[in-house]
């Protein structure tokens, strides 16, 4: 790898990976929105049911998960070799490879490529990597208009909204809201457009078809890249991506460096895991694969931008690096009780839900997003559905420890814990403490519990009762026998 690719810090500030407020504050507002909770709850329940049905059809599903996990482990362990192999094969087949250390560099590379074509408009395939770097905004500053062609991304773009889900960015909108957005924001939309799903889809199709047929430049992400051949893969359900990947003269793909698989045989595993986990389909309706440039067939100029943006730093964390196994299926979002009640915007990142709670802090540095590792109940449902067996709960605990270390300051709680630790390190001190605690029995109420304690313990009893100490401690009981 180029030395300029490693170790360059990602600029902070306004970013698609940073929220304007901590998760607890943002979550309070989201939970108070009954319509949002209804929209998210209904949508995630539907996706969960579809996924469960198609996964149940596969007898060796657990073995597939383990295979995916092992392929990802091997890939990360040999990432330097595999990236060089990918670069060599893309170049050998007529493509051009660029290395981007951070979002700013990636945006600059893409902007310069588009500017060199003389075009002022591009069409885009749904891509988490381009959302992560804020590419649309960077292009707009250079006078270039980016047209999202994925239906859900189009809805978000027309509404000047933010995506709230990895797979379904407009999951927080119901169809009546989408109808209103199309009527007011989509050029040429029928003012009498109804909220019937086929009518909405037809309106979006007519709008997008005009844009895609005239586009000279397309920008995509990549679900996978095969190092052995230099082949890129995009899977989708609508066909808009297929048109963007084949019709324009220039194709630019922005891909996180972790999206590699070594061989075509490895790709087979993920093409079984991803559609079942994400859309609840046995196979994606459109699986597009391309290798370099072919004269007279498809784009005649292909650029691949390989993006770090915090991934190399994440790879250095022996516990946290497992998040780089993620294939962006969003299964963890659809089972998470926290996400279901808050939606995605509360996370302040284009990566919401459980995977966002562990991925975002590592891409930005835990100190920049210290509240996200706490956006979880640690119920473990995310691990159960993850197609590559990422142990999200364990990583959350790992990141919580880092967040605590980064923001450690004296509090009443930390002082109490320090005092308890000092008492418990000595058998004599602990025995004396248990005798003193029996005095608290005098504070019992009629229910036999303690309902009021002096500060700072009043913070506990203001919301709940405290069990009263027993008449006899275990030590006393043992001595008497």
Automatic annotation (TrEMBL):
GO terms for biological process: lactate metabolic process. Residues 408-481 form the Lactate utilization protein B C-terminal domain. InterPro entries: 4Fe4S_Fe-S-bd, 4Fe4S_Fe_S_CS, FTHF_cligase-like_sf, Helical_ferredxn, LUD_dom, LutB/LldF, LutB_C, NagB/RpiA_transferase-like. This is Lactate utilization protein B. It comes from the Bacteria. The lineage of its organism: Bacteria, Bacillati, Actinomycetota, Actinomycetes, Mycobacteriales. It comes from Nocardia macrotermitis. Residues 322-390 form the 4Fe-4S ferredoxin-type domain. The keyword Cytoplasm does not apply. Keywords: 4Fe-4S, Electron transport, Iron, Iron-sulfur, Metal-binding, Repeat, Transport. Residues 85-305 form the LUD domain. Residues 1-25 are annotated as: Disordered. GO terms for molecular function: 4 iron, 4 sulfur cluster binding; metal ion binding.
């Amino acid at each position: 790898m180029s030395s300029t690719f490693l170790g360059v810090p990602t600029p902070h500030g306004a970013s698609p990976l940073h929220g304007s407020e901590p998760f607890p504050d943002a979550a309070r507002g989201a939970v108070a929105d009954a319509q949002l909770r209804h929209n998210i709850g209904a949508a995630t329940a539907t996706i969960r049911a579809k996924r469960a049905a198609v996964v149940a059809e596969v007898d060796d599903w657990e073995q597939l998960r383990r295979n995916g996990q092992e392929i990802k482990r091997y890939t990360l362990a040999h990432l330097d070799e595999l990236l060089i192999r990918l670069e060599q094969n893309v170049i050998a087949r007529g493509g051009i490879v660029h290395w981007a250390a951070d979002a700013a560099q990636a945006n600059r590379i893409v902007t310069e490529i588009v500017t060199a074509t003389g075009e002022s408009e591009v069409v885009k395939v749904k891509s988490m990597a381009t959302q992560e770097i804020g590419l649309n905004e960077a292009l707009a500053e250079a006078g270039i208009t980016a047209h999202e062609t994925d239906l859900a991304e189009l809805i978000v773009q027309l509404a000047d909204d933010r995506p709230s889900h990895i797979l379904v960015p407009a999951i927080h909108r119901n169809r009546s809201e989408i109808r209103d957005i199309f009527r007011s924001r989509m050029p040429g939309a029928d003012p009498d457009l109804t909220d019937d799903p086929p009518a909405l889809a037809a309106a979006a199709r007519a709008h997008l078809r005009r844009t895609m047929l005239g586009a000279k430049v397309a920008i995509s992400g990549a679900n996978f890249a095969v190092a052995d051949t230099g082949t890129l893969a995009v899977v989708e359900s609508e066909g808009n991506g297929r048109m963007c990947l084949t019709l324009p003269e220039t194709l630019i793909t922005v891909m996180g460096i972790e999206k590699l698989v070594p061989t075509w045989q490895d790709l087979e595993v993920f093409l079984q895991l991803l559609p079942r986990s994400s859309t609840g389909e046995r196979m994606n309706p459109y699986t597009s694969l391309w290798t370099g440039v072919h004269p007279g067939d498809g784009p005649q100029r292909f650029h691949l931008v390989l993006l770090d943006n915090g991934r190399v730093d994440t790879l250095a964390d022996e516990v946290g690096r497992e998040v780089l196994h993620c294939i962006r299926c969003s299964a963890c979002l659809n089972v998470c009780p926290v996400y279901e009640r808050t939606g995605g915007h509360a996370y302040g990142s284009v990566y919401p839900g459980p995977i966002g709670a562990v991925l975002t802090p590592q891409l930005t540095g835990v100190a920049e997003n210290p509240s996200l590792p706490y956006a979880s109940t640690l119920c473990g449902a995310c691990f159960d559905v993850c197609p590559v067996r990422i142990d999200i709960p364990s990583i959350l605990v790992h990141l919580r420890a880092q967040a605590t270390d980064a923001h450690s300051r004296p509090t009443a709680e930390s002082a109490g814990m320090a005092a308890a630790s000092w008492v418990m390190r000595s058998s004599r001190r602990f025995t004396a403490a248990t005798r003193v605690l029996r005095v608290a029995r005098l504070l019992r109420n009629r229910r036999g519990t303690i309902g009021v304690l002096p500060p700072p313990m009043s913070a506990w009893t203001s919301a709940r009762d405290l069990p009263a100490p027993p008449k006899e401690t275990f030590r006393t009981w043992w001595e008497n026998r």
